[in-house]
Predict the 3D structure of the following.
Amino acid sequence: MNEAQIQLALEATRVGAWELDLHTGGLVCTPRARMLWGFPPDVPLNLQDLLARVHPDDRERVARIFDKDRLDLQEGFEHRLIWPDGSLHWLSGGGQAIHDKQGRMVRQIGVAVEITDRKRAEEELRESEQRFRRLMESNLIGIVVSDLEGTIMEANAAFFDLVGYTQEDIAASRVNMIEMTSLQYQAQVAQAFKDVLVTGVAHPFETECVTKDGRRVPLLVGGASFRNADSTQFAVNFVVDLTARKELERQKDLFLSMISHELRTPLTILKGTLQVLKRRLKRQEAMVEQHSLEFISPLLKELATAERQVNVQTRLVNDLLDVSCITAGKLPLTLQLCDLLALVRETVEDLRHMAPHRVLLLDLPTQTTVPVLVDRGRIKQVVANYLTNALRYSSPEQSVSIGMIRQDGRARVWVRDQGPGISKQAQKDIWRRFRRGEDLPVGSSAERGLGLGLYICQTLIEAHQGEVGVESTLGSGSTFWLALPVVDQARKPS
């Protein structure tokens, strides 16, 4: 290669070349070397100029490398430079000594390349490892390092305290996160490790592990992948003990169940008493003279108002009882062959009696029947909840539409209102427990609910092997729907 080709190769690889005269201290270097050292292209250079820019902590070591009394120079070295603008740069270099006939070193030639980015990456990696190590040693939560098959390589004290194993157990018996999981959750945990392999992340999920002494502990687990120095892929798993939260939920559900049963009895008695009073007053109303009606008619209106309020409270109590049954896994269902069209019509007629001033529009198919295997009362409960919400969330002058379509072996019932609509964020949470319509103005009638209705609806329909959903845009109303398998494809729920 000629000199031009060598210069081109050096420039292409971003390498700077230099030559040092050990007698005069003069430096001759390529433009790339000047740029790496932070010098302009036309300023004469010597060794002292270069050493002045070397970081104070590296200066003595670099000066020894260029010592003319050294016998040879055949080593690489790294050092820091501080440019006139104050910026810090890392360089990696290497050189070769040139000797005279007497064997004395008279010149040095070498190359330099900037490694600032690499050094920054190494520093960031060290800081990241230190932060991870501090988190692991803090024992705020359980942290486990495993391979992608679940074999535990390392864990912190918080995890060991939780599951009862020790580092010695891991070293001796290769404890595996999948194998220590309760049988019903093993497939879920195995899938989480597959997710880590494919996407690099396993989103948090609830599971249950079996401890060394056989106890079952509910956990929240999540993970992410990382690679070590030789690029082997591992998983960092975060483990949170849910025992306290699960016990709190159990106590809460027990409390709700107890309170609901205690409230249900007096409400039933109160409702019965109000109905008896209404019947007696109506009999009296037919017998008394006109002037007495001015006394009886207001009483009948007040009794009707009181009965409506009792019905509202009864509905809230029934919702609490349903939630307690759902949580306990004892939701009662009595399945029978029913006509879904008839159920929808009956529910609409019931609502018409309760809200005679509202317009309910039916858009039902012309088939004689739509046979489904369902719990008759529960399906009417879901449709009634949809209708009640639609009436409540829209103004009195607006109509509510109820329709049904049958497609692909499923019947889909929908209820559409012209209310304020539901935001995208609210649509994600609306089926959860104790979630109410956040897009409604303060003081609306929707605030009377507990936010359990849609959660119960979803649970009931899923128990019938069906689906629920909502389609809504703010300012354009909402459509809530449910889908159930028709009888020719139905499978009796277990």
User: Anything to note?
Assistant: Confidence is low (pLDDT under 50) at residues 439-447, 489-494. Residues 148 and 193 are 6 Å apart (CA to CA). The first strand starts at residue 16 and ends at 21.
